[in-house]
Specification:
This protein has 374 residues and is of the alpha+beta class. The chain is 29% helix and 28% strand. Strands 1, 4, 5, 9, 12, 13 and 14 form a seven-stranded mixed sheet that branches. The chain has a five-stranded antiparallel sheet with strand order 6-7-3-10-11. The protein has a two-stranded antiparallel sheet with strand order 2-8. A hairpin with a 2-residue loop joins strand 4 and strand 5. Helix 3 packs across helix 4. The protein is elongated and about 120 Å long. InterPro entries: ENaC (IPR001873).
Length: 374
């Protein structure tokens, strides 16, 4: 049984926002839905020699070099403000992704730091970012721009492979949000949900982290090395993508897990927060420039400088809609129901017993009158 309730909040927790620059040299994400637990497929099929080199290089970098690379990445973040105030360095973070290389995060939950709260709604009250791409594109068929990932701060690192909104260059995109929460029931109920926050492994904060870790465990168990495209268990050695035996082993593990409908025990979380997004766009430049861009796209030979993306992310309402699973009968209701049934059963049996005694008394009196008349 599902209860749907709506609460008007004074403040709401602002989501974590991941920002990744699109890489035009790779295809978009692969996600296979199968019966049972969904299984995320590896990205090895799209791994080029150059991207493999970058991945290995990044994994061997010192913390200082990674910080320098993050600072270099941060240059494409031209403007950043939250609720009218400039973003601070502790609100921003960076992470590496095979397809998108370095990505930026805003409002990521780190250690005991609490995520930002917001008490106002409407455009300009949330996060506003302007991103400078600084690249020249001439092929109108290429996908360009950035990918925005919006998720609950408790879910760990944003993953552009699983979700995200693509923002087009030279457009301002307004993303209005409404918060929804889902509360599920653990065993013995049907969903058999799991509270990943209390599981004991700090690296697994969501269902997708659980699936990724499960796949990597199978790779290490069967192949003796880890898939370099899965950023889990970083202390284990990489499989050599130039070694046919090791790549075939990884493929066999993936195929076996897909055919067996996955061996991963990764149920839905007992409590999850999602965001309903409503998106609108408008041009950042004048109609004269837009006309020039249109001409260039039609000719497909004159390059045009595309260099800006602007995103405005905010709550349209401070309402929280909660979908709560409840048992048809809780403990108190069950005991009450059982008591009523027992009471009814005992009451009926006593009634029948007295009725029977009355009939027996009448019968005995009639027999006495017949055989022993006074």
């Amino acid at each position: 049984m599902i209860d749907i309730r709506v609460y008007q909040q004074k403040t709401l927790e602002f989501p974590t926002v991941g920002i990744c620059k699109l890489n035009r040299n790779v295809k978009e994400s692969v996600l296979r839905e199968i019966i049972g637990t969904a299984l995320l497929l590896s990205e090895r099929k799209y791994l080029t020699q150059d991207s493999m080199h970058k991945l290995l290089e990044y994994s061997e970098m010192s913390d200082e070099r990674r910080l320098a690379l993050a600072e270099e990445t941060g240059k494409f973040l031209e403007e950043c403000s939250f609720n009218g105030q400039n973003c601070t360095s502790h609100q921003l973070g960076y992470f590496f992704h095979l397809r998108y290389e370095m990505c930026i995060t805003f409002n990521k939950k780190i250690s005991r730091n609490k995520p930002l709260q917001i008490s106002e709604t409407g455009s300009g009250t949330g996060l506003i970012v302007k991103l400078k791409l600084s690249r020249v594109y001439s092929n109108a068929n290429q996908t360009e721009g950035v990918k925005i990932i919006i998720q609950n701060p408790n879910e760990g690192e944003p993953d552009p492979k699983i979700r995200g909104i693509i923002l087009s260059p030279n457009y301002e995109t307004l993303i209005s949000l409404k918060q929804t929460a889902h509360q599920r029931l653990p065993q013995p109920y049907e969903d058999k949900c799991l509270d990943y926050r209390t599981r004991g492994d700090p690296s697994i904060k969501s269902k997708w982290d659980c699936i990724t870790a499960c796949i990597q465990q199978q790779n290490i168990l069967k192949c003796g090395c880890r898939d370099p495209t899965i950023m889990m268990m970083k202390n284990q050695k990489f499989c050599n993508m130039a070694n046919e035996t090791e790549t075939s082993c990884l493929d066999d593990v993936e195929k076996a897990m897909s055919n067996n409908k996955s061996t991963c025990d990764c149920p839905e979380p007992c409590y999850s927060i999602n965001y309903k997004e409503k998106i609108s766009r408008s041009l950042l430049f004048t109609s004269k420039i837009a006309k020039r861009l249109h001409m260039n796209i039609r000719k497909e030979s004159i390059p045009f400088q595309i260099n800006s993306v602007r995103a405005n992310i905010f709550y349209s309402s401070l309402e929280r809609q909660i979908f709560e699973q409840r048992p048809k009968l809780d403990t108190v209701e069950f005991l009450s129901f059982l008591g009523n049934q027992l009471g009814l059963w005992l009451g009926l049996n006593l009634f029948v017993l007295f009725e029977l005694l009355e009939k027996m008394t009448i019968t005995i009196n009639l027999l006495k009158g017949y055989f022993f008349p006074s």
